[in-house]
Amino acid sequence: MKHPLGSRIACTLLLVLVASPWAWAKSPDAMPLQTIRADNPDFVYAGRVDFTDRAAPKFYWAGNSAAIVFTGRDLDVVLDDPQGGAWFDIIIDGDGNHRRVVHCGKGRRVYPVATHLAGGRHTAEVFRRVDPTLAGVSFEGIRIDKGGKVFHPNLHYARRIVFYGDSITSGYGVLDASRKDEGNPRYMDNYVAYDALAARALHVGYRSISLSGIGVMKSWFPLVMPQMYDRLAPRNPASHWDFTRWRPDIVVVNLLQNDAWLLPREKQPPSSRQIIHAYTDFVRALRGHYPDARIICMLGNMDITAKGSPWPGYVEAAVQAMRAGGDRRIYSLVVPYKNTSGHPDIAEQRVLAQALVSRIKSIEAAGD
């Protein structure tokens, strides 16, 4: 914008931030370690990643990641941020509770993220925690001990989920204990947003197509989701995503919060019928790309779902219209208003994740 299950999700929420390794960044050729280039076949990538240059794939979206298994005691990451300012989590050995944090400087740099690891094999995941509010960053590989080896990680997922959302989905402000919504990207972390939490709880692969401030009809900038959803590079209208490359089993749409804030300010706000029509058109466009997936039209948990809000009714009307038209694999989910200031914090993101996981399980149990 302005910009039970509990044990499984809760274990991901104990967040520990270490000093940002950007302060130790060195020139790419200054370190006595071997480089494992980004085009090494043992890397496993997640998300809409731009492989135009396979030696330097570009991460635009929150949740874009690269994972690999390696041997050695030291680990560096090589990133090229053309503007500087992006944030990454580095998860070692699956320990999401003690993530290393990289705050990118401008240009191509080496970031030392671990030293003196125990002997044996380790997994490393380089995870973009911020959405396309910040520039795309090229991942150029890792550096490990000269005698170290790399292996392909076992990251096969039987099921897949894609999310289309705004700042709630990106994890905007999730780390901001002050709840002031300052807009500082250091407080954004998709790793602890509901989409990533739900995906880990369900053990499914996920992709987050989200941008803080975006809406269906109106955004805080001149770009709306129906224009962006099918792009590889979110700000480039000539960049197109090939939907056949990755087929999800479930599609989650959590949008309209920005529309709810902005459309009433228009001199001639759209009618409820126009809003429902625009939302339905977008969901139908998604259905065209995902003919076999279950689609969940989700709303919440900011003030769009507060008592008396008309927006849950708009979403339900769109879902019922599509079901009446023969689409029996579309569903709604409204998560109650959190009734606190600012964006959802970690606990409130967990509520969203729990609600979504429960809804998915109930749909699957019913065989719908």
Please give the CATH class of the largest domain: Alpha Beta
Q: How many distinct helices?
A: 8
Shape: globular
Total count of domains: 2
Task: Explain what the structure shows.
The chain is α+β, with helices and mostly antiparallel strands. The chain has two domains: 137 residues, Galactose-binding domain-like (Jelly Rolls, Sandwich), CATH 2.60.120; 207 residues, 3-Layer(aba) Sandwich (Rossmann fold). The protein is 22% helix and 24% strand. It is built from eight helices and 17 strands. The strands form three sheets. Strands 1, 3, 4, 6, 9 and 11 form a six-stranded antiparallel β-sheet that branches. Strands 2, 5, 7, 8, 10 and 12 form a six-stranded antiparallel β-sheet that branches. α3 packs across α8 and α6 packs across α7. The protein is globular, with a radius of gyration of 20 Å. The N terminus is likely disordered.
